Amino acid sequence: MTADEEGGPENEPFHPFGEAAEEEYRAMLEETDYDADLGMAMAEDALRVTKGELSEAEFHERYHEDVLAEFGEDERPTKEAYENAMEEAKGTLGGMLERFAGDGTGSRRETMKKMGVGAAAVGLGAWGTAEGGDEPDPAPAVAEEEAEDEEGTQWGMTLDLEVCDGCLSCVVACNQEHNWNEGANWMYILAYDDGTVESPDTDDFESPRDFNMLIRPCQHCTDAPCEKVCPTTARHTREEGGLVLTDYDVCIGCRYCQVACPYGVNYFQWSEPEVDAPSEDLGEDMMYDERGRWVSGRGPRGVMEKCIFDPARQDGNRGEEFVGRTACEDACPPGAIQFGDMNDPESDPQRYAENVPLARALEADPDDEELQEAIAVLEGDQEPAEEEGGDGLTEDEAEQLLRGEYGDAESTFKLLEEYNTDPNVLYIGNEPGPEAEQVPGPVAYEDVGQLDVRKDALDDGTFGGSDLSL
User: Are 176 and 327 within 8 A, CB to CB?
Assistant: First the structure.
């Protein structure tokens, strides 16, 4: 069965990256040992589930027999499991695979074919606000499921694109921490032009605001379509912290998750790792999470990888001082990356989003005495003046001073909100427009000892879905 049988108009692209990307995805799947038609159909329907056009139970039932025939197993939750969970929790389905599938067992096929490039194309324009068209109406069954359960920790990020200077320190730090093969980047910093900012020549760069920037980690969606298509539960949402992870010991490398992800953040490990694991460079404390599942660091040949929000840190494997932090956040000089518990109003990402001028000022730690006074007033470390013109600053004057110096959050957004994946990354700044094109940033990847395979392939391309390479 294909998604077209009950889906939208036949031949209309289902993926936000467009028709060219879908053709590349199909060609990619056809080079594996697995059914390309099944992978494409499941990916299309997984996105229909998140958009409210198909129920979780219907999705499982539709592909159960085909998954069994292709993989010899279907470890996705059964229809009954979905229905029982909805009765018991009446909440989101983000952690359901983890709760019903247990630890997951299975062996990785040893004969995965070597693929071409490790990184998927980035469709910047596809991530922007669509021009024209109606947003999908949520199905009644899905509307009932959307009562959010905010108990416990949900790790996520607030990313300030207005202060990102494109230095690539986060990319370097992520690579050093996890040892992924260069070019299969778990973190991307993309400079782009969509007509809203006149991007200068790199030699004329003076300020990060001379560029439109996009920081691109995994979005760690609460309702992740990538896990819906995984036949083995290798891709799953961990109940603790809501992290979307891959169990390398269970993954068979079918790459279905790569097609189902609307953000282009999954990478296939198509070569033998450059460093064996466990090793001095990647010890077991950096590989296994608190459940004993191998979900961290660079994976072995034949599995899928992506940004993981550092479970080794969040589980305390590196010490309590690293809990609630990521390597990319620690390395970011301007403080554009704020990581923490999105369910905690006192966490770094939530406090940053609540008062952006103050947060930027705290990160900048200016020498100017008046700016420091404004910070102290708004932080509650100094009593504000009762009226303007008196000794010291009133709260309004402090706010105005910091807003004038550091700007404000004129816009915030989440990527591809119309897909209802509930991403746990909040952006501050400009959202890429539909005609966004990647341009050279202030720092080249090769200048910091990294590779940007997709950038090299797409420097002259348009990211609206017509000129993509996977």
Answer: yes
79 Cβ contact list (under 8 Å, min separation 6): 57, 60, 61, 64
Rg (CA), the chain: 23
CA-to-CA distance for 269 and 256, rounded, in angstroms?
Answer: 14
Q: What sign has the CA pseudo-torsion 455, 459, 463, 465?
A: negative
User: Over the range 380-392, which residues count as b (16 or more CB within 10 Å of their CB) and which as e?
Assistant: eebebbeeeeeee
Three-state secondary-structure class, residue 306: coil
Phi and psi torsions of 49, nearest 5°: -65, -50
Instruction: Return the amino acid letter for 424.
Output: N
- Largest Cα–Cα distance in the chain? 78
Q: pLDDT tens-digit profile of 402-454?
A: 999 999 888 999 999 999 999 999 999 989 988 888 888 899 999 998 887 64
Report in angstroms the alpha-carbon separations of 121 from 10, 24, 419, 458: 24, 10, 19, 8
Residue found under tokens 């905010």: 150
For residue 278, is the peptide bond before it cis, meaning its omega torsion is within 30 degrees of 0? yes
For the CA atoms of 392, 397, 398, 404, the dihedral, rounded to the nearest 10 degrees, stands at -130
- What is the secondary structure of 71-102 as a DSSP string? HS---SPPHHHHHHHHHHH-S--TTHHHHHHT
Q: Per residue in 109-126, pLDDT tens?
A: 332 322 223 233 445 667
Closest CA to 225 of 16, 466, 9: 16
Query: Could you tell me the pLDDT band of residue 154, with boundaries at 50, 70 and 90?
Result: very high
